[in-house]
Amino acid sequence: MDINVIVDNDNNELYLELNIFYNIGLIILGIIAYIFNIFFIYIIWKERLWKQSIQYVFQILISGSGMTLGLRNIIVGIINLTVFDSSIPSYDFLICKIKYAIDILILYVFELSFGFRMANFTILIGRPVFYKNYLENVRNKKYLVIILLFFPIMCTLFYILDINDSKITKNCRIHSFMGEKYKYFFVGFLVFIDTISIPTLIYGLYKVVKLNLNKSAKDNVIRLSNYYNFIYIIFLVLPFNTIVISFFLRADSFLIGLYYDVSMFSIAIVAIVDFIFAILHNKPVKDTAMKMLKVKNKVSFLYGLTN
């Protein structure tokens, strides 16, 4: 086994998953993301917050994919550090295909859920009557969840069916296995998301500025809006649009794969920051979390006194 501090393989191609620091980062972020998101889901479910607002329905999907991503990062990081060496072509072909099929599913669920949540917030600010009558409708909530699960599953199946399974030795990275049809679909999907989300973001900013609320309430809305916009632009739009630009510039396959590795790393950061923001600024989540932590602290304290 040969663990590299550098990020190139035997073919002198950049490959982040060979880097020891990248894998340590994956494991650390994976552990934190898994704990935070499973705790977040527990709070929402225990307090039945998902019945109060569709925002929490989206959050369950975001945290569910964030939890799965955390577990994926832990496993991948450990395997990369303990099993694989710099001979990337020796990676098991089937394992690599399964790994990236799971990545695709996580990616679509996370991205779509986060995007829907942001769009939902914009509609709440800009069209509150429509929001209350349609989006907070129990039946419509179910339809949205079905859409947010059905579409990623179909995209994953498309990736699997169109997978490039030629016998030519490949690196274990997502772009190496993408079929030609799926490549165009993936880039087209990202462009479509940009076309819809960027105007929605601008419209949301405009509506937030024009809100007629007292200073405290308006400050809270602005804080939430700024959070959504910052996270979306820095950790989702920029990394994935780098992939789109590289595709149109016909960059080397390994370089596109490298950008994909960075994008998956950035999603892991979002999966952690989302819970931290909720603890700081979401009163129902904050109150429940503090109540649970205090109970656990008391139990630990009493246990210490009796031993």
Automatic annotation (TrEMBL):
Presence of the UniProt keyword Membrane in the record: yes
Gene3D superfamilies (alphabetical): Rhodopsin 7-helix transmembrane proteins (1.20.1070.10)
Transmembrane segments: 20-45, 57-84, 104-131, 143-161, 184-206, 227-249, 255-280
Keyword annotations from UniProtKB, A to Z: Membrane, Transmembrane, Transmembrane helix
Signal sequence coordinates: none
Superkingdom, natural source: Eukaryota
Record's protein name: G_PROTEIN_RECEP_F1_2 domain-containing protein
Organism per entry: Strongyloides venezuelensis
